[in-house]
Known about the structure:
There is one protein chain. The chain is mostly helical. The protein has helices spanning about 5-15, 20-35, 50-55, 60-65, 85-110, 115-125, 130-140, 145-160, 165, 175-180, 190-205, and strands at about 40-45, 70, 75-80. The protein has 2 domains: about 5-85; about 115-205, no CATH class. Strands 1-3-2 form a 3-stranded antiparallel beta sheet, with no helix packed on it. Helix 6 crosses helix 7.
Amino acid sequence: MYGLKDADIDKVAFALNVDAYAIVGRLVKLKEWALSNAAGGWGDGVTKEWLDWYCSLPGLAVAIEAVTWIAIADTGVRFTAWLDEIVRREATSAATIVRVNKWRTKQRNRPTAAQLTDFEFWWQSFPRRQNKVKAREAWRLLDPDEELQAVILEATARQSKWEQWTREGGKFIPHPTTWLRGRRWEDEEAQAEDRQAGTLDWMHEHGVE
Length: 209
């Protein structure tokens, strides 16, 4: 019963001169406390006096130690009778916590419905649509409000007409993820031309056509 032998329950009941059912009721209460509070099966700071008080039965601690259900030490009590169950429950709880934390992280990293809608609207306006997954993540991290979204959309429409974006079939249009992470909506055309010139110089220097 409750992981304990009926014969041992009878021994404890006889030692304390009480009914076996009275022992069982107190064991249920004590086990629930141990499962919730005794990390690794160890009740730090627990004394036999406290156990007797908690279970409302003087002498109980000594009696259950005699049948090796607990081991009393100077610094606490080891709940040997339920040690395996306590450790098993703790392992299960730890695994559950890991799963829950992973789920929460995934939920935090998932774009909201509003973000997805706003992103799709911008994505369709951007002339180079490559690596959508990374671009969506960059948008989620940026999380632009309505004012910034308006600035981004206006800059996209304006920059789409720039010469460096239209020449050679759009070869030099930046990747959308790079554009978002670099806050390229803040570019002026002259700045973009300088940046493009530097890129072309690097390509020429390294023999990249």
